[in-house]
Specification:
The protein contains nine helices and twelve strands. By secondary structure, it is of the alpha+beta class.
């Protein structure tokens, strides 16, 4: 049996994608046959090599789709035809047809590999749809609590410090402009950092001398593309639920650095903290609606874009502050800031 498992295919856009013809060509080469056809449930989609009369391939596919199993036939000149179903996520989604002498088990192994790639492609597309929907949801959740407080601070300064009020109003406009930007689903770390600094400047005016802020970001991660509005909701949660409830001065730090192939961003506060069980419920989206501004949303989008092994990590305890860590790959195909 040939090493079918070693075949590299690019079917990220499915059978109708621009890379499907290349996949058919590679399949034909690996199986060492005269031709290969990839079909979905509507019929042949892409082929390479020897042509099969449409009437014969339609009849062949009809048998595969009706019985859900492999079919072997011969063409008019006695050339063998092997057709086997493509089972994607345990559902019949199409068929692979090989023209020429080969081993039936190899055709089945190749079909299994194609189905696996199509399953991964469907999962990536689903993740992208989920991420886009979650981002629209987050944009609609711009905190009215923050908006009210920011405008109240600006209004209070109009007479006492008009220059400062004008600057804060400009910052507030920049904050809203970024939050509702329609440029794309991804931004650079530098863009996210700028939005965070604008948000924190507004909060500094509100807290006066009660809020200390430290921002340290390594230059090498500034161009890294990350999902839009990943950092700011975490910072807002730290301010609103960590520091607002603390007596006296509070400190929040935002740091970022490279860790091998990863980009790591940490948001830490010395506020009131929370019980670890509450932190777990917030990430699961089952915590109190008044807590965790955007945390579950951000966590879900990170997992949707990068996979289940990524997402937020929360370290906290009552009275001990909270640290939220974001770890994402520096480079991910399809993740590009616009």
């Amino acid at each position: 049996m040939r090493r079918i498992h070693a075949l590299g295919l690019d079917l990220r856009s499915g059978l109708h994608g621009r890379d499907a013809p290349s996949a058919a060509r590679r399949l034909r080469r690996l199986l060492a046959v005269d031709g290969v056809v990839l079909a979905d449930l509507d019929g042949p989609v892409v082929s390479h090599g020897r042509h099969i009369p449409s009437s014969q391939i339609d009849a062949l596919l009809a048998q595969v789709f009706e019985y859900g199993g492999g079919v072997c036939e011969r063409m008019a000149d006695d050339t063998p035809l092997y057709a086997t179903p493509l089972m994607v996520a345990d559902e019949l989604s199409g068929a692979l047809v090989a023209v020429g002498e080969t081993v039936e088990a190899d055709v089945e192994a190749a079909a299994a590999l194609v189905a696996e790639h199509l399953d991964h492609a469907a999962l990536r597309r689903a993740r992208a749809r989920i991420a886009a929907a979650d981002l629209r949801s987050l944009r609609a959740q711009i905190s009215p609590h923050f908006v009210h407080n920011a405008l109240a601070v600006i209004a209070a300064m109009v007479r006492t410090d008009p220059d400062r009020a004008r600057q804060l109003l400009s910052d507030f406009a920049d904050y809203l402009r970024y939050g509702f930007s329609e440029k794309g689903d991804y931004a650079t770390v530098a863009d996210e950092l700028e939005a965070v600094e604008t948000y924190l400047e507004l909060q500094r005016a509100r807290f006066h001398d009660r809020l200390d802020i430290t921002v340290r970001i390594a230059p090498e991660i500034l161009p890294v593309a990350v999902p839009f509005l990943v950092v700011q909701p975490i910072v807002e949660n730290a301010v609103r639920h960590g520091l607002e409830r603390k007596e006296g001065r509070g400190h929040i730090s935002v740091s970022g650095y490279g860790e091998g192939p990863l980009c790591v961003i940490e948001i830490e506060d010395d506020g009131v903290g929370m019980h670890p069980d509450l932190a777990r419920s917030l990430l699961a989206g089952t915590g109190p609606e008044t807590r965790g501004v955007g945390l579950a949303n951000v966590d879900q989008r990170l997992r949707a874009v990068y996979g289940p092994e990524y997402g937020l990590v929360i370290e906290t305890a009552l009275g001990e502050g909270t640290k939220v860590t974001v770890r994402v790959p520096r480079f991910t195909r399809g993740v590009v800031a616009q």
